[in-house]
Amino acid sequence: MAFIAASWVAVLAGILGFIIGLWNASTMQLNEKGYYFTVLMYGLFAAVSVQKCVRDKIEGIPVTDIYYGLSWVSMILTILLLTVGLWNATLAPSEKGFYAFAFLLSVFGAITVQKNTRDSQAAKAVVTLPKEGTDI
């Protein structure tokens, strides 16, 4: 239960920190804020997709190669887009670091929340066997 709570705290802290940072960025134009927000949302989706594809493959659930590849390309692309955006941004190095770490925290949180959700659903699906000596 503690890991589930910590995962939710991580994803929410990362997302809220990133968005609050964008809201308070007075030197950043609205189109820049939109760019970083879109990269964050795309990154969260890509991270969950990668985690799901990897887990499905491990469990023997069929995953198309195209979706598996697109998930990985999307995750790599979001990291690349954020890196290029921050590299060229006219922000203080501390602000650039803040956005990078808020992004990574939210992506990590999204992956763990998705994993915990899937584990919880799998645990509910397990049929409990009757005790010895009881009639079915």
UniProtKB/TrEMBL annotation:
Q: Where are the transmembrane segments?
A: 5-23, 35-54, 66-86, 98-114
Keyword DNA-binding assigned = no
The family database entries (Pfam families) matched by this protein are listed as: YiaAB (PF05360)
Q: Which UniProt keywords apply?
A: Membrane, Transmembrane, Transmembrane helix
- The YiaAB two helix domain is annotated at 3-56, 67-119
Q: Which residues form a coiled coil?
A: none
UniProt superkingdom: Bacteria
GO BP annotations of the record are: DNA damage response
Gene Ontology CC annotation, any one:
plasma membrane
PANTHER family, alphabetized: INNER MEMBRANE PROTEIN YIAA (PTHR37290:SF1), INNER MEMBRANE PROTEIN YIAA-RELATED (PTHR37290)
Q: What is this protein called?
A: Uncharacterized membrane protein YiaA
Organism, by scientific name, is Chitinophaga arvensicola
The root-end lineage is:
Bacteria, Pseudomonadati, Bacteroidota, Chitinophagia, Chitinophagales
